[in-house]
Amino acid sequence: MSGSTKTTLMTSFQPSHSEPISSNKGFYRKLPKGIWVLGFVSMFMDTSSELVHSILPIFMATTLGASMVTIGIIEGVAEAAAAIIKVFSGVLSDYFQKRKLLAVVGYGLAAMTKPVFPLATSIEWVFGARFVDRIGKGIRGSPRDALVAEIAPAQLRGAAYGLRQALDSAGAFAGPLLAVAFMIWLANDIKAVLWVAVLPALIAVFMLIVGVSEPESASHNAPHRKHPLFYNAQRLRLRYWLVVALGAVFILARFSEAFLILRAHDVGMAVGYVPVIMMVMNVVYSLCAYPAGAAADRFSASTLLLWGLGILIAADIILAIATSPGIALLGAAFWGLHMALTQGLLSKLVADNAPDDLLGTAFGIFNLVSGGALLLASIIAGSVWSIFGAPATFIAGATFAAFAATGLLLYRFHARIAFP
């Protein structure tokens, strides 16, 4: 290995800033107001989205008669569409420096789709609404993530992403909780429950419009404005592309969460209580995301990533051997802990290893690759489930996660990488 190559590898995943890292004490107070507002916007929109998603797979499978493969394809295509759009919205937010405007458009579009789900009379309606909803997610995702990086002090980016993920996950807990409550109240009338999702989506859009200001950005003479839009991808460094590859590996080891819901129903959980599995996953995710994000500002990235893969393996094994709803809920809790340890950290690594004037582009490319990986993982998971059954699906996920952890350990040892 040449000296220059080894130097590049040695610095991979290291942050691009050099500010001193303060203690965890007072992180909540030090984070700017805009970070909190973006977190609550995510919370309300996720309350709406997860209320829908926690009962939608059952709605598709029972009311509309969709197969497991069809559900896997719908979930994968919808998320892949979001990922593709994130590239364009990220690039445009860099070029025009209008991150908030794009975020408002994305959240607004998602809010407009919510009434379509209860009105659906066929799988085509659901697919269309799910697709457009994810288009909205794609439009808002990269500009919002870039906003977090621009609003938060560089030395607190891990804490900022962790806080946003924590509030986002709180909404992901509240959504299924509302679904369960209204399923009981409305005697398992799924279509009536889906209408509840409309209000929190509208609240999210309103908060974003009135509560977040566009940060001061680079001037119109910034380098990214002098070249064609995708020319700027050439300015992204090797360490950034290694983060992109790492994110794709994590997604391949973790397919759509729709299969958690289907697994809960498969082991005997009543339809009205199936959203509980998402509640358990997201309450663990919410409670652990901020501490994990703050830890990412201080401790080894490789250690946190390896712990995350190890916990994902445990979650898959538990879900594979589950014979009762209680065991499935335990597997969901481990799944949520894995998400807390890895998602905010990967966002921080993207922000730390991209030029400040290309943050939108960097998040867009990262999300595109991750979305393609999710499409592949979801189709494979649905196919394995249909052919070999539910346990085999989760054993396959655990196997891939084990290979990923082994590869990360070997890469770290061979290159002697100094992770932050």
Written description of the protein model:
The chain has 420 residues and is mainly α. It has a single domain (28-214, 234-415), classed as Growth Hormone, Chain: A. The protein has 17 helices and no strands. The chain has helices spanning 3-10, 27-30, 33-63, 68-96, 99-113, 116-119, 123-151, 157-185, 190-194, 198-211, 238-252, 258-266, 276-296, 301-321, 325-352, 359-388, 390-415. Helix 3 packs across helix 12, helix 8 (157-185) runs antiparallel to helix 13 (276-296) and helix 13 (276-296) packs parallel to helix 15. The chain starts with a helix and ends in a 5-residue tail after the last helix.
How far apart are the termini? 22 Å
**Tally of DSSP helical segments:** 17
**What value does the average pLDDT take?**
78
- Our estimate of the beta-strand percent is under 5%
In the CATH scheme, what's the topology name?
Growth Hormone, Chain: A
Tally of structural domains: 1
Uncertain parts = 1-25, 415-420
Largest sheet: none
The 3D shape can be described as: globular
Number of strands: 0
Radius of gyration: 21 Å
Relevant CATH superfamily: MFS general substrate transporter like domains
| Strand-pairing-aware structural class | mainly alpha
What is the top-level CATH class?
Mainly Alpha
Q: What is the element string, with H for helices and E for strands?
A: HHHHHHHHHHHHHHHHH
Helix proportion range: over 70%
Task: Tell me what the CATH architecture is.
Answer: Up-down Bundle
